[in-house]
Input
Amino acid sequence: MTRCVLFLLLCFPPLAIAKESCSGDHAEFLILGDSQTGANWATSYFGNFIQKCLAKKGVSFVSYARGGTQPIHWLSHSGLDHIDTVYRSATEAHTNLGGSLVPVCKKRLDRLIETHRPTQTLLFFGDNLLTASTDEIRSQYRKVIQTLEKAGIRRENCTLLTPTYEMAVATKRNVPSKDLENTIKVIKAIEAEAGTSCRILNGLDLMKESPLLKGETLSREGVEGTSGCFGGAANDNIHYCGKAAQELAEKTCRAITEKTDSL
Output
């Protein structure tokens, strides 16, 4: 038995296996997010549409996302490491990498930068911080900025996308904390902490002139060939879907590829 174990360790050293499983190609953009960017249960979310837009533009990118995550879960907190990680690139529209068996290096911002050597980063978080205090939000983004700066990501190559308006529902909003007041709180905290270190794309500003915006909510309109905006999702006010998600993604896509503030 001892000889067998020794043979396996010599032929398949743990570090070699880890290194191989964490290798990756260079990508111009590294995108990180929560379920808005990487949900398994829908094909009409932000992540689906940003992938299509960037792929159409011929941009090299990789996108990693896990539902429920806050920035801290991509820095040091392992509490949601078991959640499925959804991966996208210019050639892969939607790949579920799995949960607990996915190497930690594919769940941490610094390691992903090391692996893919991106020129630019796009981080889209905030809807899982709606009930957090301003101090907690600022603390998490302070650590994000420190990680990006340590990795050599310059201000002009760092973009933080914030939450936007909630979706209209059929009968009852399933996430009471997703409202305009809490969304503004999150955005102000992000801007206060990171506004001098990264470009901020304010989700409310991006969508304030949208024809889909009715009062303080975005109309629920589907995109042909996609799912997850109606049926069981009809009361989901927190996940941007359908034409609303498509518009947010395409405006974000244009902003990060054209390097312009004109949206």
About this structure: The mean pLDDT is 92.
